[in-house]
Write a structure and sequence with these properties.
Elements (H helix, E strand, L loop, with lengths): L7 H25 L4 H7 L12 H20 L5 H26 L3 H25 L1 H6 L1 H20 L2
Helix pairs in contact: 1-3, 1-4, 4-5, 5-7
InterPro entries: TspO/MBR-related_sf, TspO_MBR
Protein name: Tryptophan-rich sensory protein
Subcellular location: Membrane
Length: 164
Amino acid sequence: MVAETSRARPRSLVALAVSVLAVVAASALGGLATTSAAEDYGRLEQPGFAPPSWVFGPTWTLLYLLMAVAAWLVWRTGPSPDTRRALTLYAVQLVLNAAWTPLFFGLGWRGIAFFELGALLLVLIATIVLFWRRSAVAGAMLLPYLAWSVFAWCLNFAVWQLNN
């Protein structure tokens, strides 16, 4: 990696802060939909593989941190159409990420949430591919998010079926 100039360093730190704020905003927007997600989750009929509600907070904290750093690493690869495409897809998946909680918990639309999460998975896979092309480390940093999202998709389907 090329050493940053003293002028570029503050811009890079601002970009990292913006990246962190973007995931905080996505998380907050999703969380605004319901303040009682943990209680709602506990009241639902659950499949045997469902984790306890306390697992979600630490898991998402780690995943959001990885996402923010990955986006920052892609931003650092420099301005180009490929970087813009990768970060645009990243922004789309953040919007889809934020939309899931209101659909699943706020509105109780578990079937719609399942299909919305399917769309998120497709966009996330495309994002990983584009991130990987800009920075293999950034692409790899999104793999735990992909794994968790596939798990969440399966869990969403099972909860939807059990609570229909």
